[in-house]
């Protein structure tokens, strides 16, 4: 099978996983079970049938409306599905040709966790421990076969300590969830990509903050969650971190 054909299949698999992530994003911060009951329309509570629950496709066929009550379905659902598909297909194209299966599995899990963190923190201003604790452990476990457990553990501890310091100095500007998320990113990305990711997160956060205030979406006093910026920094570092480092340091 050609790389393009396999990447399309991985994209489709990613949209199915993304459909599950939508459930996690909605239910995890509300303390609801992520396995049952089946999905319902949040407006009329009609159970959504499997044929109306096909990632991306159903949204297009239904033109973004519930089949029963015609209430609009959030654009968030197809966006998360498309993002999950796109991220996994991108990682597949990057790692599959060289048979780098461990980095592929590690970055795929990491990317999907970041998608969940991005939207939950955006909606609820929390980064759930249910993501960061298992994420930290998974990042360290994946470091073992890559022969970098000790450096990854040190980077995880360093990133966590840095954010703890920022939290103390800023007096609550940075939350406990951000500290654990930074540690988890350190475990997955190791050195030097974690530094790239955190730097990108600060730039993204500053730009987003200025834009949101300029567009009057947030006032100067509103807290702006940092998790989405960390997630964005992690994803950019995952794909472009090595290239950015080579470009910055002028290494051919
Ligand atoms: Zn409905």
UniProtKB/TrEMBL annotation:
Membrane-spanning residues: 6-26, 100-120, 126-144, 149-169, 189-214, 226-249
InterPro entries: Prepilin_IV_endopep_pep, Prepilin_pept_A24_N, Prepilin_peptidase/N-MTase
Prepilin type IV endopeptidase peptidase domain span: 109-209
One Gene Ontology biological process: signal peptide processing
Location in the cell: Cell membrane
Protein name per UniProt: Prepilin peptidase
Predominant localisation class: membrane
A GO cellular component entry from the record: plasma membrane
Record-annotated Prepilin peptidase A24 N-terminal domain positions: 12-95
Membrane topology type: Multi-pass membrane protein
Lineage, uppermost ranks: Bacteria, Bacillati, Candidatus Sysuimicrobiota, Candidatus Sysuimicrobiia, Candidatus Sysuimicrobiales
Family: Belongs to the peptidase A24 family.
Alphabetical keyword list: Cell membrane, Membrane, Transmembrane, Transmembrane helix
Molecular function GO terms recorded: aspartic-type endopeptidase activity
């Amino acid at each position: 099978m050609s790389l393009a054909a396999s990447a399309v299949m991985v994209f489709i698999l990613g949209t199915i996983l993304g459909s599950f992530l939508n459930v996690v994003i909605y239910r995890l911060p509300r303390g609801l079970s992520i396995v049952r009951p089946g999905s319902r329309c949040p407006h009329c509570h009609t159970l959504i049938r499997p044929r109306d629950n096909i990632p991306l496709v159903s949204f297009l066929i239904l033109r973004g409306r519930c089949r029963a009550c015609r209430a609009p379905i959030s654009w968030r659902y197809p966006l998360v599905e498309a993002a999950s598909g796109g991220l996994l297909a991108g990682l597949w194209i990057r790692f599959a040709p060289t048979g780098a299966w461990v980095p592929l599995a590690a970055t795929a899990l990491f990317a999907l966790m970041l998608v969940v963190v991005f939207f939950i923190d955006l909606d609820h201003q929390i980064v759930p421990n249910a993501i960061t604790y298992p994420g930290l452990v998974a990042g360290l476990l994946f470091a073992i076969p890559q022969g970098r457990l000790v450096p990854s553990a040190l980077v995880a501890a360093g990133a966590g300590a840095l954010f703890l310091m920022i939290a103390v100095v800023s007096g609550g500007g940075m939350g406990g969830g951000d500290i654990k998320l930074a540690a988890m990113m350190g475990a997955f990305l190791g050195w030097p990509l974690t530094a790239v990711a955190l730097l990108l997160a600060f730039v993204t956060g500053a730009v987003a903050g200025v834009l949101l205030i300029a567009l009057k979406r947030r006032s100067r006093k509103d807290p702006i969650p940092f998790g989405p910026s960390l997630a964005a920094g992690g994803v950019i570092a995952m794909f472009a971190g090595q290239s950015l480092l080579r470009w910055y340091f002028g290494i051919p």
